[in-house]
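Page 47, continued from p. 46.
Same chain as before, 331 aa.
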Amino acid sequence: MRDNSTKFSDFLVIFIIIAFFYGLVPIAGAFFSRYRWGRFRKRFNELRLHPLLNYSRYRQVKNETVFRFTGEIESITDAHTLWVKGEDLTIPVSLKKIRCWLLPISEGERVPEPPEQIRWNRVSTLSEGAKVYIGGVLKMQDDRLTFVSTKERPLMVIFYNCREADLTDGIIRAARTRNEYWNTITPVSLVIGALTLIYFASTFLNRPAFRLTVISSLIAIFIPLLPMIPPGLLLTALYRRFAWHARRLRAYWDISSLPMRYLQHDEETCVLCSGEKYGFIKLNSLPPEAADGKIPFLIPENTGTEKQTKCISLAYLMKLHPCRKSPKTRL
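Result:
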């Protein structure tokens, strides 16, 4: 006969296996996935502060200067040099030992798929004329200015199929996991957890006194299937709905904070790399367009001043966070 303390220790081992492989490891993978996509968006936002490369800037460029560039694939030479053709310039991009991104955005898609990471040697499978975004260091290499990747400033190469005007919005909305629990670590963790429970149960198969332990271990293997059967199916649907809604709100938050990245702390205006004056104004109330819940993203330019100031509206933050009672709305 087994005493109660022995039974408790067996169930405790089963619980620890379940909690670790079915809970802690996937949750840790979710945090890692969120961190990885957050770092991707941060790098993209940092590149937005640098100027777009054109022919005039190309002629004046200094060695190891950070630029952005958009264009179409022209050709691939030397097995790892991508030639990208822009409006007035064709520039080489060194793809050696870097990872590129595919951004599949369909027109009208509300929650796009996350970008797919591909190795540089797969770029040759893309057709000529595919749109590409490059951000990184432009430096002299093989007697020509080339986009290269460095340890301090890794090169970002994104292939996309949307309009260039929708690229920033599309990347910020797409560069996040749809289901954070189901990440790249989760399937491996579930398989290892199931095999561990099977091994634990097999050690007691020939011992009748441990029959309850064997049955509990075998039942625990199928815990990941509970979300697929009632009532777990309903809870799964609710979880997916709330997760989708939270994903949209986080994307709105990131998009709404983009205009303020051009400004330093405690500054209301600045001069962009294009020479334009940029800033925000403060209003005591929301604009009239917000009366019906249609808070605009873009406010018309202030044409009453000598130098136009582009005002980007952050007013719909009040819609996302109605608990804020500040008398002034930042624009």
